[in-house]
Amino acid sequence: MAGRGPTRQELIRRRRSGGFIGREGEVSAFRDALKQPPDEAAQFLFHVRGPAGVGKSTLVRQLETIARDGQAVTAYVDESVADIVETMEVISAQFAQQGAALKGFDKLLATYRQRRHEADAGMGVAVTGGDLPAGEVPPPSPSTVIASQLGLAGLGMIPGVGAFTGAVDPHQVAAGADRMKALISTRLRNHGDVELVLSPLDALTPVFLEELSEVARRRPWIVLFFDTYERTGRLLDTWLRDVLVSDRYGGLPSNVLVTLAGQSRLTAACWQDWMDLVTDWPLEAFTETEARQLLTGKGVTDERVVEVILQLSKCLPVLVSILAETQPGSVEEIGDPSGTAVERFLKWETDPARRAAALACAFPQELDEDVYRAAVEEDATELFGWLRSMPFVTDRSGHCRYHELVRGTMLRLQRRQSPARWEQLHTRLADAFGQRRARLEEAAAPSRGWWADETWRAHRLQETYHRLCADPRTALPAALSELLDAYCHGVTSLRRWIQTLARSGRDADSEAVAQWGEDLQAAMDGPGGSGAVFTLLVSRAGLDAVGRALAFACRGLDHRSAERYPQALADYSRATELDPQLVRAYFGRGRTHALTGSHDEAIADFERAIELDPGHFRSVVSRGASYRLTGRYEEALAAFGHAIELAPDYDWAFTNRGVVHRMQGRFEEALADFDRAVELREDPWALVNRGVTFNAMERFEEALPDFARALAASPDYGWAFINRGVTYWELGRHGEAIAQLDRGVELSPDHVWGILQRGRMHECLDRLVEAHDDFSRVIELKPDSIVALCGRGRVRHLMGLYAAAVEDFSRVMELRRPDEWTLTARGMAYRLMGRYEEALADLTRAVAVGPSSAHAHYETAVVLQALGRPECDHHLSRAVELLAPEGAGITSDPAANTGNLVLAHVLSLRWEEAGSLVSAFLGGDPQPGRAQELILALRSLIVIIPSAEPRILALCRTVEERFAGHQ
């Protein structure tokens, strides 16, 4: 089978290469670089620089042709890229066209886009403490900035700057990084996916370089060209430098050459330490000899004609080429030698259709054949091929662009000559792009709306550009409003729209539009980022009430992303005042209320959003989350059911509904929901929730496979380790349980529930210091945690720190109405401190609050015994009665029940019964902590009944011998 023939673009490149004039030194040096052994390459980074029109792009095209003729794989990048991920994508696509696909990179890039979408979808409603069991308050919610700004180059994409630049105040970044990761993790349980979304450059670039290395092993050279670097350098500089000279992302193959081409020098801040590696090629205008050589090659030999061309062009290569293209044969064809070179080219072009086509096609920013036909008159519709061959037209994969110098001149010429024609043609092109957009809209909209469609966005952007050029005053308000829609898609889109606004202002010579563009670009590039853009929009005339409302809503999102909640609420409220129908303002305010724990207000806002738009999915799901957090479980079930009706395949809604079912004790319904969620997507969060439900049903062995599957998918998923630890504990595998909790807390160091569980386990194993540390850590994280305060107070009691225990129990009673357990615990601490009257006061209240509490009656009897009061016998008898097999004081802890009976019989001096009960206690295989608690309680009675000390110590020895050497 014959090999693939050359493409039309390749033939055009070769033809132009054959007529290439000048730059012999640069071309020769480049050829020499391709001849050198890669491991000895002294020159691998070239910088072509010089003013517009000097021939930088022409030289780059010539060098690319030379590289391809030498069997190199090449890629060309220019200002059309908006960030570094796009840069790698463009390079990969061009490599694929040359039979050198970067398949691994392409696959990971597709995964990145999918996971980014999932993160966008999930974080819009990730306000719940979904990983916490019922009754636990969720941790502070992290910033939700990624939900709307994952397109921002700053998520590792603005080189040299931390994450979220241009979206969040830089001072917020470090403090919010862990919270950001936690938020994304609520949707993406796989650690690798979380890192991919959070730090796409750190994840994508190493794979990109690995794939590049694979290509480099098969091809002699890889050559990368970065044109218009004066515009892309601020985005690419640091990343490109790190790729070329550091090991940050991995190694770069030695047979890679890089050429940068731009108007200015490389920035010293980035490149100053590496300038010795850069081969600097400053370009000047052609010498007269080179210009004459080019003209001769074009057949222009009449000396008078040559002199005029040299005068008009100032020997700038692009202008010499343009003027030579018409090939005037005599001085009579020159006419008036005044005017610019471009105007002269147009006068010398004798074919009126060609001349008109060249002028008309300067209007679009980029051309394909369809745009060409929309721009030109009917008699020029077949001249696209001719236009593509012009020296001022760059052709890349069927998309053509004019040289900026030429395009700017033609636009100025036409704007001055015929304002009516200017407006007419721009309007025609705007309508053409609008029609292309409308044709797309005839199909079903993407799930994320049309703004998520790249082709649709491109048509919309060009339509906006042409409407601004046609009638700047009329089109400006709509264009400014469009910035807000662009922002809602992502910061990268916002940047594109701002750049287009600035360009249209320059091209149309509209001072108002140009000033807006400059001011918006300055705001976007400043420390305030997108927030500063919205401040500018709401503070300056230009938007109507609806547009200003949207601007306030967008700034509210920016404030919410940076956790500036009061400012966010103020902006959202202002938005609803300006536009009471703005759904996103109610949703945004609801989300902010939810993040600050004001769930009733959040629910009201979500309901208003749903009233305005019954299909507003994020409001439906977020309302369900707030219902769940406020214990309104039936309403939460209805909300999640509604969400499932709107999106039957949305696994997150099934998982949330399953959590609510579990909280209500409807375990079978919960399992059914988790089964469906896992069927839709093997999400580790759903798997762990199903495992937790199995635990609640005491089906521990069935829980373990779910935790294992979750950890196989997400090896660093702390909540999975924590719950597997709980399961191991229930199965009696205590050492494994602690190890799992240790790993879970290591991965999620602020996970309150996990630290609590480990503290309880340490307490049960009589590891009191470790238990104390865990409960104290929880109190640091959550100072009003009653569970942790009770736990620490109990441990302090066991450690003999009675005054400190009293402090903890007193704090608990400040936080809630005193109950019999807390009163009994503090009363016992007072008793052990010898403060019997205070002890009796607490214990009397405990018995009044909990008359069926055997422990309260027992402790009361002990204090009364110490005080020598006869009521002791009544309380002691009542304690024994309540602890009888069918007694009302029986608890779910058999060891505690038996231990309390031991104590009651010792206080009654019934030694035979006490001994039998000790045997029964040990026969129940109690935890070491429970045994130590009994020993301490027995020893505390020696003060109360000193004569019984030998018998009490004998009972203590019986227990101690059983647990001698335990750890």
List keywords for this structure.
single chain; 967 residues; mainly alpha; 5-stranded parallel beta sheet; two-stranded antiparallel ribbon; 49 helices; 4% strand; elongated
Overview of the structural elements:
It is a single chain. The protein is mainly alpha-helical and 967 residues long. It is 66% helix and 4% strand. The protein has 49 helices and 7 strands. The strands form 2 sheets. Strands 2-3-4-1-5 form a 5-stranded parallel β-sheet, sandwiched between helices. Strand 6 (393-396) and strand 7 form a beta hairpin. Helix 20 (419-441) runs antiparallel to helix 21 (454-470). The longest helix has 23 residues, at 419-441. It is elongated. The termini are far apart. The relative contact order is 0.05. Residues 124-179 and 335-339 have low confidence and may be disordered.
Total helical segments: 49
Low-confidence stretches: 124-179, 335-339
Indicate the structural class. mainly alpha
- Largest sheet features: 5 strands, parallel
The pLDDT mean sits at: 84
- How would you sum up the global shape? elongated
TL;DR of this structure?
The protein has 967 residues and is mostly helical.
